[in-house]
Amino acid sequence: MKILNLFLVSLLLSSCGSGSNKQNPQELNYYDIKGFFEREIKELEKANPTVNKTTVYNQEEEIRTLKIEKWEQELALFSESDINKSSWKGSYKIDSLPNQLIYSAKEEDLRTRKIVIDFKDNKPSKFSIQNKNSNYLYTSIEDLTFYPDSLYIIHKKQKVVLLGGNDYKIVGKLKD
Fold first, then answer.
1. Which residues 6+ apart lie within 8 Å of 41 measured at CB?
2. pTM score, whole prediction
3. Model confidence pLDDT, tens digit, residues 150-162
4. I need a labelling partner for 121 at 20 to 30 A (CA). Which of 104, 108, 160, 164 fits?
C-alpha cells in the first residue's frame, strides 16, 4: 500500500512539472498575438486605468466611466484571435510592409480572417482584426481594433436565421 501511495504521489508530482502548454516563441508561425495581449492585460490590471466605455446595442447607447475588473474578459476576443496553432501553419498569407504586418486567411473556414498590425519604433501601435463565424443558422462578424494604452473597439454583428440580427459596439477609451 505504501508503494502504491508513493507511486501515486510521484506520478502526481511529475505531472505538475515545470512544463508549459505555451508554444516556444521560436516555434511560432505568426506574430504572438496571444502573448502580446496576455502581457497587455497584466499591465492594465497593474495600472488599473479608468475607462470611458461606450456600449451600443442595436442603436441604444450607454456611456459609463468605470474601472474594468476583469481585463482578461474585456479583451478576450483579441486573445482568442491567436492564429499560432500548429495545424494552421501555412494557412495565412503574410504581407509585410514598412511598419505593418498583414495576415490574411487562405481558407474560408478559418475564424480569424485578417489581422493588420501597425508598428511604431518596432512596437505594435495598432491591431485590426476581422473574425467571422458562419453556418447555415448563424453568422457572426467581429471587427476588433486595439491601440495599446489608449483605446479598444469591439464591433460585432450577428444574424440568426428566424431570429434576426444584432449589432453591438464597445468603445473603451483609457484615461490616465
1. 71, 72, 75, 79
2. 0.81
3. 999 999 999 998 8
4. 104
